C-alpha cells in the first residue's frame, strides 16, 4: 500500500522503522511530539492532505501527540490511549505470537452466540477475566462470543458506543495485546470471536477528529452525533473506517 494508504494512518511499526501518517489537509505543518525524549519529528506534506515521516527514534510504549500548526492533540488514529481520551497517544508494536493457526470456525448456522461486555463479565473487568471464564462459556455450549465495542472511550467501563479512537483498544480492558491474547485463547478453545464495532459516528468526549480535517459531514444525520464523512467532499481521509471506498479527492 502507498505511503498515503488510508488504512495505515497513525503511528505503526513496519518491522524496521516507525511510520507516521496523518491526514490534516488544511495544516501548514505537522509534527509528531515524542514525550519520552522531548523530540519533534517533522512530517512531510504529501498529496491530498496527507503528511508522512519515518523514524527510528520511536520505541514501543513511547507517548506522543500530534502537533497541527500551533496546537497539540492526541492521535485520533492511535492504537493506544493509556491515559484516557484526552491524554497522549502511545506507540505500540502489534506483533503477536499466534498459536491458533489450525483453528477452524464452526458453521455460522451452528453459532450459539454469547454477547459479552468485557467491563462487567468478570470481577477483574478486563480481557484476562474473560479468558479465565472460557471454560464457563464452553460448559454453556457457547460457540461464539460477541464482544461489545472496545474502541477507546471515556472512563473505564461503559457500553462502548461512544468510542472516540476507533483503532485503540480500551486501555482499562488491557489494550490491543490482551485482546489478541483473548482471541487466541478463544480460538484454541474452539470459540469464534465477533467484534461489535461502531463506524458511523464517534462519541463527543475526547473527539479530536475535527481538529485534523473534514472527518464529518452534514450530508447525513444520526441520533448519536455527527456522521462520519464517507462519501461527501474530502471523504478520502475517512474511507478506511468502513467498507465504503471514497473516490473524491477534490
From TrEMBL:
Keywords tagged on the record: Glycosidase, Hydrolase
Origin: domain of life: Bacteria
UniProt xrefs under Gene3D superfamilies: Glycosidases (3.20.20.80), Immunoglobulins (2.60.40.10)
InterPro entries membership: GH, GH13_cat_dom, Glyco_hydro_13_N, Ig-like_fold, Ig_E-set
Glycoside hydrolase family 13 N-terminal domain residues: 8-72
Enzyme Commission number, as recorded: 3.2.1.141
CDD domains given in the database record: E_set_MTHase_like_N
Glycosyl hydrolase family 13 catalytic domain sequence ranges: 125-215
Gene Ontology annotations of biological process type: carbohydrate metabolic process
Keyword Transport: no
Molecular function GO labels: 4-alpha-D-(1->4)-alpha-D-glucanotrehalose trehalohydrolase activity
Pfam families hit by this protein: Alpha-amylase, CBM_48
Entry-linked PANTHER family: GLYCOGEN DEBRANCHING ENZYME
Family to which the UniProt record says this protein belongs: Belongs to the glycosyl hydrolase 13 family.
Record-given protein name: Malto-oligosyltrehalose trehalohydrolase
Species of origin: Sphingobacterium multivorum
